[in-house]
Amino acid sequence: MRNANGLLARIVRDKQLWRFGCRRRSFCSLKVTSDDLDNQVLFEGSGCSRTAILNRPPALNALTTHMGVRLHKLYKNWEEDPNIGFVMMKGSGRAFCAGGDIVSIYHLRKRGSPDAIREFFWTLYNFIYFLGTYLKPHVAILNGVTMGGGAGVSIPGTFRVATDRTIFATPETVIGFHPDAGASFNLSHLPGRLGEYLGLTGLKISGAEMLACGLATHYISSTEVPVLEEQLKKLLTDDPSVVEATLEKCAEAAHPEKTGVIRRIELLEKCFCHDTVEEIIDSLEVEAGRTKDIWCATTLRRLKETSPLSLKVALRSVREGRFQTLDQCLIREYRMSLQGTVGNFSGNFCEGVRARLIDKDDAPKWDPPTLEKVTEDMVDNYFSPLTPSEPDLDLPIKLRESI
């Protein structure tokens, strides 16, 4: 392999979108997990590559604190090993990763365990930052459900391979939460107002649409995933251009459906460019009446059944993300996530999870119940620390940026 320092400097230079510049100091402490918990993340080794396998298929590989710890430990060891050239990540079963294990967070909240919830977000967001500054090529194979935190542990990497089985969404507002795990950064850099649309509605897009908007870097048929994996495992390289050439060789053309949101970029710009959620809804209603487009009706229905506070918080979060680096977004989202799960606004999260995933009555009672009753002070407070003494997310920015 070539000189590691030269390679790492070039990878970082080539990934300026994922570079950051904020102000924290040290890694979070990583606890050693048991063998059983380690099985939630398996790994394979072949030649000079390593593959992390998210392994909770019954839960669609939803992320736990232990998985965040395990991933961070593995990735740190692999980054430091000069014999490892590049790293891959995939999921077991029919999902890549459906996001964070929000049902577990719900039960922790009900049991009164705020420290465990803090640990979850602290651990996951630190790993996402570590992946975003990773010093070796990274390939995420998104062959299945990829939502919420699943996007967080894949999009900051070098390459993301979508398939015809990929389903992408950031559905947090539907459960009374906000797009997190770096979503305010990722969504805000999409074309036009697509980020606002995805962040507010939580509606799904396909693997072909992921490629079209830049969330994915490559697209292949799901039946060809084993072939791609075998080709990658044969590589003896630490050169991202060599990895990319293999991905390009296996890649296929992707054709988004004509009825999909990617075909409506101009309409998104027209409706989602407004300053407030109320204006966005008004604009959609005008277009629905004028065009009779079923897409407008579907979008309106989703917005009207979603937490009003979450809608206003999500809109502000995505728009702030356009002017922040990923580390800044993660630090801000950490404050927001604590407010939304253990702070003054945790009631909406508990009610959303109850209605969508526990009781499944799909009849959440939001607080406030309407957009008109969501005040600016509420939104401002959602972005603030739980208490004046609450520590911010501690990211190793000086250490990672000095490499």
From TrEMBL:
Pathway the protein takes part in: Amino-acid degradation; L-valine degradation
Q: What biological-process terms (Gene Ontology) are attached? A: L-valine catabolic process
Keywords in UniProt for this one? Answer: Hydrolase
Q: Which InterPro entries match?
A: ClpP/crotonase-like_dom_sf, ECH_dom, HIBYL-CoA-H
Enzyme Commission code(s) on record = 3.1.2.4
Task: Return the broad EC class.
Answer: hydrolase
Give the GO molecular function terms: 3-hydroxyisobutyryl-CoA hydrolase activity
Reactions catalysed, semicolon-separated, are: 3-hydroxy-2-methylpropanoyl-CoA + H2O = 3-hydroxy-2-methylpropanoate + CoA + H(+)
Which Gene3D superfamilies does this one have?
Answer: 2-enoyl-CoA Hydratase, Chain A, domain 1
Q: Which residues form the Enoyl-CoA hydratase/isomerase domain?
A: 50-383
Q: What's the domain of life for this entry?
A: Eukaryota
The record's section on Pfam families has: ECH_2
Query: Which protein family is named in the record?
Result: Belongs to the enoyl-CoA hydratase/isomerase family.
Read off the NCBIfam families from this record: PRK05617.1
What exactly does this protein do?
A: Hydrolyzes 3-hydroxyisobutyryl-CoA (HIBYL-CoA), a saline catabolite. Has high activity toward isobutyryl-CoA. Could be an isobutyryl-CoA dehydrogenase that functions in valine catabolism.
The protein depicted here goes by the name: 3-hydroxyisobutyryl-CoA hydrolase
Q: Give the organism the record lists.
A: Raphanus sativus
